[in-house]
């Protein structure tokens, strides 16, 4: 479905419509002693103290729950597993842990939990006294590091929407300093922590999760190089490769990510899906809100153009460019055709995971200049 908006401004978020579009929720109880995980997909662990916001993050990012609705979520008292299979590129498990997990409990199998983990996200409530949380953070990452030193350790300093900008910076600096001092005192200087300021009431949680997921994609450098080549030959200022369902960006070009630009692109995806659900589906409700014909052009009143095109069934390329550059739309479309072809040659889209393990195709070794010789 092709959509064009002239002289539009985007100032608010839009919610996804259409029950057939989102990923199915697969929450199920896990026995901590279970030593046979159902899948060997990359695993992301959500940990933190009670009421720190772990379950709210999961519901907002991957299940399209309104942030206000998360106020009614009950506290997690068991380990829950969520299979995220909404996209060929976002295909992993999220394990949501209750805040009262005791790592010294003999029934807690650290080997099984941490061995197959790609990333561990520890959520700290920035609006609460976080000294106890820092103690639990140190215990968690030190135990996990001993089992699996290849885990990516991520710290979400959460609920910062209620803090001033100055307070946010001071809190991040304090948490960063105390956490790293604790690791240095324990002789774990090689253990690296990444810190993010997050809130479910803006796009910061999606941006932070994008950074986490990108670390689990071994083909990320190839994707970034393809995007760099594409924008340099097309007069485009910024380009994101989005997972449409979660609004996580799988990759972007090497230029810095501006939060406002990212929010515009997220809002555009919501607009496209919303309009497609209203006008693009069949009379009987059949069809898909996002398909191979999905295309949208939004011209803002500041001479900026947002351009969205379908890359795969689950991925969209969203570009930001100036109106004068968009006059060469034919060149942009030709370069996009080459870019899209390169993506399909680097990955076997639709069978990217064989036995739930990321598997690049033999063509991933082809030189990018050969893939993009049309540029």
N/C terminus separation:
27 Å
The side-by-side strand order for the widest beta sheet comes to: 2-4-5-3-6-7-8
* Low-pLDDT ranges: 5-39, 349-375
- How can the largest sheet be summarized? 7 strands, mixed
- Structural class based on helices, strands and sheet pairing: alpha/beta
> What fraction strand?
15-25%
Mean of all residue-level pLDDT scores:
80
Total strands: 15
Share of helix among residues? 25-40%
Element-by-element helix/strand order: EEEHEEHEHEHEHHEEHEEEHHEEH
Rg calculated over all Cα atoms: 21 Å
* Tally of alpha and pi helices: 10
- Basic shape: globular
Overview of the structural elements:
There is one protein chain. Helix 3 crosses helix 4 and helix 6 runs antiparallel to helix 9. By secondary structure, the protein is of the alpha/beta class. 34% of the residues lie in helices and 22% in strands.
Topology, pairings included?
Layout: E1 2-8, E2 28-30, E3 43-48, H1 54-63, E4 79-84, E5 92-96, H2 110-115, E6 117-125, H3 131-147, E7 152-158, H4 165-185, E8 193-197, H5 204-214, H6 220-232, E9 238-243, E10 248-252, H7 259-280, E11 295-300, E12 304-310, E13 315-322, H8 323-326, H9 329-346, E14 353-354, E15 357-358, H10 368-371
Parallel strand pairs: 1-11, 3-5, 3-6, 6-7, 7-8
Antiparallel strand pairs: 2-4, 4-5, 9-10, 9-13, 11-12, 12-13, 14-15
Helix pairs in contact: 3-4, 6-9
